[in-house]
Request: fold
Amino acid sequence: MVQRRESSSVLVGGVQIGGGALIVVQSMTNTDTRNADDTLAQIRRLAEAGCEIVRVAIPHADAMEGFARVCEQSPLPVVADIHFDYRLAVEAARCGAAKLRINPGNIGDLARVDAVIDAAGEAGIPIRIGVNAGSLAAEYADADLPLADKLAASARSFCGHFESRGFTDIVVSAKASSVGATVDAYRMLAAELPYPLHIGITEAGTSLAGTVKSAVGLGVLLSEGIGDTLRVSLTAPPEEEVAVAWQILAALDLRRRGPELISCPTCGRCEVDLVPIAAEVERRLKASTANVKVAVMGCAVNGPGEAREADVGVAAGKGVGLLFRHGEPVRKVPEAEIVSALFEEIDRLS
Amino acid sequence: MVQRRESSSVLVGGVQIGGGALIVVQSMTNTDTRNADDTLAQIRRLAEAGCEIVRVAIPHADAMEGFARVCEQSPLPVVADIHFDYRLAVEAARCGAAKLRINPGNIGDLARVDAVIDAAGEAGIPIRIGVNAGSLAAEYADADLPLADKLAASARSFCGHFESRGFTDIVVSAKASSVGATVDAYRMLAAELPYPLHIGITEAGTSLAGTVKSAVGLGVLLSEGIGDTLRVSLTAPPEEEVAVAWQILAALDLRRRGPELISCPTCGRCEVDLVPIAAEVERRLKASTANVKVAVMGCAVNGPGEAREADVGVAAGKGVGLLFRHGEPVRKVPEAEIVSALFEEIDRLS
Reply:
């Protein structure tokens, strides 16, 4: 359905971004990088949740030793996130980073940028040019332009410098906490640059607000074919970011991880207690990676129709559930047995 | 930023839908409609959460007495949700419904539809033509067309019949559980019909999946100017639907209810325990309807930049927070006092 924008291809460890690859899910650790064990444990949890590339901050030189060990033992390619001090980026490239992320707004003069480019070139790793509304260089921050234009101009100018040095192993991002500004900036970059785009809404907020903001903003971009890798930013445990990222991709049929659950909102027509039934089905489906579509429906209005479209479905009546398998009604069970009967049918599929 | 599509105007009780009005937030009760007290209590909670029009199902004739009392005492305009039995719609119009919602897929032959149209005309209330993928009439369900085309064709044909009877006090919806099909159907209807559109993703699922699906689908439509009223469908308490609806509108700067909270995702640079701080700030801001922008940021990278853009902000350092008011640094407080100091500054704004 979605026509993806074409872009160049970048390799991060063994994971391809752009160039026709599937959209890659990223997140970022929030442990103290000096504590490699904590950081690795979080990366393993992230990998289990479906994260494919992980970013790790190197705030100071004393985090480099931990970072090196993380790179060595991480099950996912590790991106070094560097601000302010270009020497940390140079060092990270030598310590096993699979990609560097630097921010044009705070890395300083171009001689320093060149040192980073050269280090990445020697290590054979890509660089993400990560522009952020909260940390634009003064020449852009103070310009009399809409925020989206400032973000795009800063990214473009940095790309131009990289190209003049013959380095094109680039991923680009331009994030703001405003959905409108972010979407507009990425539209400009998508039209103007050949590089894969890392998309995200920055400082999106706590779970609910951040989830909605990210889903709206990234949903609009992805539906236009823009975005080769995404990171959902939430003020919440990073595993939640990964779950939301996958839900966004699934909503647009771009990628799916595990089963799909269709369930109705319940209303005055519903004659079983559907909310806990749907929650229990969701909880049990989480353990599954089967590509199966399950419908849990509360009444006879849309119930049979949706249940028929699903691989396995239930449409509730008064204290009972009518089970469907591949569109055919199978049997009727009492309310208390709906969940177990549904999973019997799911197990029969495989 | 968003250019709204033009549409005719419809009045539901005192609430205008379309014709340039602000986008209206709806939800639906899931109490037993026969129990008017329960239903009214839920409607009051929904109103408090920001719901502006409420829909109530009338599954059988024995719910009519409760429905009539709900209409009489509800603080919000009440829409009667009717399926299968046109006589319930006719009766609901006489019992005080502010709008009727019927589904072309299950209301039966046109003589019955005409009885509903006439009853609405006499009562001076509008009708929503609510097409749903799970309950399409057989002539559309079996057609060899993409789902979006079936949804749009069913809605269009029903509108045509209403018009032939001189009734144009219409709101239209065409929902599916597939984001892609729903978006495509609404794009067709937006281009072809003059009526306001009620948008929603049906059977979107449980809290997380349903929130993301609704935010993606409704976000895409709203960003294109499509949608005059929305209902988020979640298999969860309906108050959650209202909260998500408002977050979607806020994300696109279409409408805002209460304060905006910007907060960063935290990372290895963060030297305070930011997640509980942000959660506490969010919890305390919920009580406020002030139009204020608050930033809670974990470090010096984007912290000062975002905190400066906010009315009140905090950028954390090692065990401390630097407070900003309207872009100016105000004072530094220890970590334990960040929340209380932030609210002191917020209180000073008013």
Observations:
- The two ends of chain A are 28 Å apart (CA to CA).
- Chain A touches chain B through 88 residues (CB under 8 Å).
- DSSP finds twelve helices and 15 strands in chain A.
